[in-house]
Amino acid sequence: ENSAEVVNARMSPDTEPRLAQVMEVIVRKMHEATKEIEPTQDEWMTAIQFLTRTGHMCNDWRQEYILLSDILGVSMLVDAINSRRPTGASENTVLGPFHVDGAPELPMGTNICRDGKGEPMYVHGRILDTSGNPVEGVKIDVWQANDEGFYDVQQKGIQPEFNLRGIFRTGADGRYFFSAIKPRFYPIPDDGPAGELLKALGRQPFRPAHFHYIIEKEGYDKLTTHIFDPDDKYINTDVVFGVKESLMAEFKPVDDLEKAKELGFEGRYYDVEYDFILAKK
After folding, report:
1. Cα–Cα distance between 225 and 142 in angstroms, integer?
2. What is the rounded (10 degree) CA torsion for 143, 149, 154, 158?
């Protein structure tokens, strides 16, 4: 009956305090779950093999453990615990598994679509502080999936390197603007253990259309977030639980040919405007 206590009692009194705290809780909760579930030996081995296969799916650009954490809602919970913000500041959401370092820094207004595929979109807004003042010198790291729902790292040799990725910096007016394409809903990679679990639970694997952002400047809380299309059919069933109402922005179709030409588009395009509010540290 006191199996967890027996295991935790073996910990050295010299164990680093935070590690001791974490392991005490993990051991206690694992023993509680095991006693409640009462797994058979075969079920226990199935769980071990599941975790082993999860590790085998990981590589330089795919982190299956992050996907598993995402679909179980743990990633969003950790994010919420670590991203408490004052009223009015923009909300965080999950990073996702497809951010890459080394994206090029681009002049404001650049088109981040390198292969010309997809419905053109103009993305713009301001970076403000919680008092409504523009923030200069903010680094904006943005990335998105293509019109088929794939990131460049998922289609090496098909999409150009750093397709639909870029880094921008705000000027004194706090404005940001760039051209991209209208994002599309897509399934998370479901050919591994995380996908097998979704299927077994009768859950769909899709994320609604969105842009990713990492927005940061010294002296302000780092913001890792998305903006979502509120009309996407998966907006209420995001497989990773990342949607927040405050992060929805209207993706408006524009048929003004003169305006389209000014922006470098040949015809109809989409416009999305969204202001991000940064909290000072």
Report:
1. 10
2. -100
Coil, strand or helix at 48: helix
CA distance 234 to 236: 6
Query: Listing from the earlier edge strand, what are the strands of the sheet with 139-143?
Result: 165-169, 139-143, 210-216, 223-228
Cα→Cα distances 245→8, 124, 140, Å: 42, 19, 22
What's the DSSP call for residue 246? G
| The Cα angle at residue 264 between residues 262 and 270, in degrees rounded to 5 | 90
Of 214, 51, 84, nearest in space to 138 by CA: 214
Q: With left for phi above 0 and alpha for psi between -120 and 50, is residue 137 left, alpha or beta?
A: left
d(C-alpha 243, C-alpha 230), whole Å: 10
165-169/139-143 β-pairing: antiparallel
Express each pLDDT in 34-59 by its tens digit. 999 999 999 999 999 999 999 999 98
Q: Tell me: the pLDDT tens digits for 209-221?
A: 999 999 999 999 9
Rg (CA), the chain: 22
Residue 272 · residue 227 · CB < 8 Å: yes
Whole-number Å distance between alpha carbons of 68 and 240: 9
Which pLDDT band holds residue 60 (cuts at 50, 70, 90)? confident
Q: Counting runs of H as helices and runs of E as strands, what totals does the chain give? A: 7, 11
pLDDT at 45: 98
CA distance 95 to 242: 9
Pair of tokens at residue 220:
């302000």
